Structure prediction request, 446 residues.
Amino acid sequence: MDPQQRSAGRPVPMPDRDPVIDLVRFFCLALVVVAHTMMVSPVLHPDGTVTSENILGNERWFEPVVWVLQIMPLFFVAGGITGLQSWRRLRARGGNAFDFMQGRLLRLIRPAAVLLAVMFTVLSLARLAGVDAQVIELLTSGAGMPLWFLAAYLAAQLNLPWLAALHSRAPWLTLAGLTTLVVTVDCLRGVLPPLAYLNMVFVWCAVQQLGFIVADGERLQPGRPAYFGIMAASNMLLGLIVLLGLYSGNMLVNLNPPNVTLLLLSISQAAALQLFRPGLSRIASLTGVRRMMGVAGLRSITVYLWHLPLLAAMSGLLLLTDFPQPVGGSAAWWWGRPLVLMGVVALLLPVLALFGRLEERPTASGPSQSRPAAAVLLAAVAVFVPAVDAALNGLTLGLLGGGAACFALAVVLLGRIPARLTTPADRPGGSDPPLPRPPLSANVEP
Prediction:
């Protein structure tokens, strides 16, 4: 809160939820689910071994397409917009950085803890039932891929309060500093390859910082005509470093660990978001679209975490049946993708019914005091230890079990969400859930 506003007793104006960002989040999630159904293709070989092919990723025509459809940077831009607004609302209610960290951790790790526990239990039983260890390893590594996003998003969000403070003082200098860190890591990654994983933090924090700039409106943004120039310049620079052979032109290859190409892509996408905002706003204001986004937004984390494990399990089980298995990339395989997508959606429905409420009510109802800073920091460590291990060494069955235990420990350490994180309408009587309910929104933040 500004000191003058505090002394004057005037409330700080807080921005309303942005339906355009809700629409962007919904589009990003839908595109990820559809794209994964066109990538996963397990193959059972005559000698009994099973491998998985990324059909879409291996298509040469897909490389320029993924340049446009790699929407993970856009998701982090949107996270920066809503995260900054949420942090400012929390501060206006008297919250602090550890309250913010506590709320973020609880919202994301509780659904993930259940996923890890279920995967560990099911795959362990399958191993005891005689399923080949290679198949278990394949399912484990493939189904756990969405967890890298959870770690990257949490890293960016947990750093948000102090990055927001730097942004309020020097927005462009802060972005330049993060960009310098990204480029420095890229320059040193050839000498020490594990160093590249530092950009899991630096890249996504820099992209999140772009979201801060977008969120602050006209004070920091150029006019609409300039967005064309920004999009053109960022894509030309991106094309130049690809043509020089400094980076791959495949944005899937550049994703993990991330590098400066994704930062350039995020600049183009942030400019496009603002350029097309009027049209997107009209679409988002339609009653049917708004209702659809709201319903989907209540369970977005569950959809993201569970869709790939369910897809991997369904594809693996089909290998054990006489169901026709067309060759990956063939015409029959492509025609079968809509059926695969419908199968994943059908499997998601009972999962959403069972576990979806963990997003809506990630803590016990009723007010609660903030947790000590040490408990919040220890919970963050408990989450990131298995996440870093998985990023460096791959996800294994043992790490699934250890990760589930660490995530459960973090939930216990964090306790219940602080009362100040709830809206005033939620507080009377202490009987309502501690998270704001209406209006329906695809935003993750309170």
User: Anything to note?
Assistant: The two ends are 19 Å apart (CA to CA).
